[in-house]
Amino acid sequence: MSVLHNIPPVFDRESRILILGSFPSVISREEEFFYAHPRNRFWRVLSAVFDESTPQTIAEKKSFLLLHQIALWDVVRTCDIRASSDASIRQAEPNPIGIILNAAHIERIFVNGKTAEKYYIKLLYPTIGIYPVCLPSTSPANARMSETDLIKKWKEALC
């Protein structure tokens, strides 16, 4: 069944970094905000990178991103997907990332994990021409990487 991405991007004209995930999980789609699953380490990792407390509410998360000049969205706009399984993504169509690139002065593009990288290269790179930096996934499915290791890798890339 085809599922449509229902979370608008977070960015403003001051955004310099763009972080793209693959496609939101079921919980994120229900909460209508990024990385809502409590086991996803995205917000804890990003907070540690910037040495701040982890934002809890959607408003706090948006403020955190904008304060650090980070734009956030996902590569895939619509796809066939089973539950939250990135491995099951089929018939993927891209989000119109140009909305962000035309409004902000994005200097670097990062993707959160190999699936986001795969779909970025397939769907967006041919028209955008900017190669992304692939960061290790914050998903709980990436169990081989500890949160401490994630923080180290993300900090090396972002700072």
What is this entry, summarized?
The chain is of the alpha/beta class and 159 residues long. It has six helices and seven strands; from the N terminus they run ββαααβββαβαβα. It has one domain (2-158): Uracil-DNA Glycosylase, subunit E, CATH 3.40.470.
Which features does this protein show?
single chain, 159 residues, Uracil-DNA Glycosylase, subunit E, 19% strand, alpha/beta, three-stranded antiparallel β-sheet, four-stranded parallel β-sheet
Structure description:
The protein is 36% helix and 19% strand. The protein is α/β, with parallel strands linked by helices and 159 residues long. The protein has one domain: Uracil-DNA Glycosylase, subunit E (3-Layer(aba) Sandwich), CATH 3.40.470.10. A four-stranded parallel sheet has the order 3-2-6-7. A three-stranded antiparallel sheet has the order 1-4-5, covered by helices on one side. It is globular. The mean pLDDT is 93.
Task: Explain the layout of strands and helices.
Elements: E1 2-4, E2 17-21, H1 26-31, H2 42-49, H3 58-67, E3 70-74, E4 76-80, E5 90-94, H4 98-103, E6 108-112, H5 114-128, E7 133-135, H6 147-158
Parallel strand pairs: 2-3, 2-6, 6-7
Antiparallel strand pairs: 1-4, 4-5
Helix pairs in contact: 2-6
